[in-house]
Amino acid sequence: MDFMNSHRDMRLGDLSVMIGSPERRPEILFNPRGRRFKLLNNRPFLPGNSDNVAISFNLASASTKRLLAIGDSFLFNSLASLSTFYRDILYVRSSLFQPDLLDLFAPDDVVTANAERYLAQVQPDHTADSVIMRCYGRPNYIPSADFSDALRAQLSYRAYPATYQAWSTEMNAASFNRLGPSKTNSDLLPISGSESQYEVTGVDPQIIYTDPLIEVGRTYRLHITMETNVKSISQLFIQRSPSAGGDYSTAITVPVFPGKNQITFEIPASENGESLRFDPLNNCGRINIVHIELVEC
Fold first, then answer.
1. DSSP string spanning 71-101?
2. Are 112 and 71 within 8 A, CB to CB?
3. How far apart are CA 280 and CA 288, in angstroms?
4. What pLDDT score does 193 carry?
5. 161-172 vs 145-154: helix axis angle to the nearest 10?
6. pLDDT tens-digit profile of 182-214?
7. Residue 55 · residue 151 · CB < 8 Å
8. In this predicted structure, what is the pLDDT of residue 62?
9. Measured between alpha carbons, how far is 49 from 22 in angstroms, rounded to an integer?
């Protein structure tokens, strides 16, 4: 319970939908409290959910254990909750056991979960092949670099631990509680050997937090401690809603100066959205993100 938020809601279950019943029943829903959970998924690059592979990485997990999760989409929908307990999760949508992943991923625990309808017809093991490798070579399968890097790192955990360690260190960079892991654009290059220092190579550097712990109707302050070697301005953009896509609201702008800067952005309730975009400078230079903290007012 220390890692979860809960609330009661009236829910319409799958079976109710199937029989055409409008009856809703009260259920207690749980969501992970932290926002250092990162999910990398190849589903957007597939024509359906067959051969779906997803990787969960949560720096705020209750343990450093690894979980291999084999099942269907019902199990996939539990990954956020399972990430409360497991640092790394490798999910594959399969009705078969996939024993090769035990050697490559090296899990502490394994869970299999398939709805009965998926077990009506199951191919024998001797005719099966690896879910992980099945898609590669198809002309219409081009997963993102983020997903490919994550998969390579996770499958290197036992044989090539330095590869996994380098990837997890990169995931940890600029990732702060309540904000979650970040994405950066090409105008912001990490400095080798550092988890928080960047070279700004253009006029539009961006650090995007796609899943901050922000609730509609509440106000927040974003406190940032940042060192830089140039005079410039910092900006915060707020995405208004999930339906807005990449459309961010008008920027909140503050000046920054050479040395250490204490920056505070006020985030009004009316502006709460799905993601935050922090532009540390508007000219070339170097920055060191010392600390970022999202505080509810």
1. E-HHHHTTHHHHTTT-SEEEEEE-SS--THH
2. yes
3. 10
4. 66
5. 130
6. 778 889 888 876 667 899 998 899 988 876 777
7. yes
8. 86
9. 28
pTM: 0.64
Q: Residues 56, 105: contact at Cβ < 8 Å?
A: no
The first and second tokens of residue 259, run together, are: 């040395």
pLDDT band at 33, cuts 50/70/90?
low
Q: Which two tokens stand for residue 146?
A: 């983020």
Instruction: State the Cα torsion 95-96-97-98 to the nearest 10°.
Output: -120
Written as six digits, the tokens of 28 are: 């207690």
Cα separation, 279 vs 206, in Å, equals: 5
Lowest mean pLDDT: which of 39-53, 93-107, 267-281?
267-281
- Secondary structure class of 241 (helix, strand, coil): coil
Distance, in Å, from the CA atom of 253 to the CA atom of 264, rounded to the nearest integer, reads 10
Sequence-ordered list of residues with C-beta below 8 angstroms from that of 137, at least 6 positions apart, any chain:
none
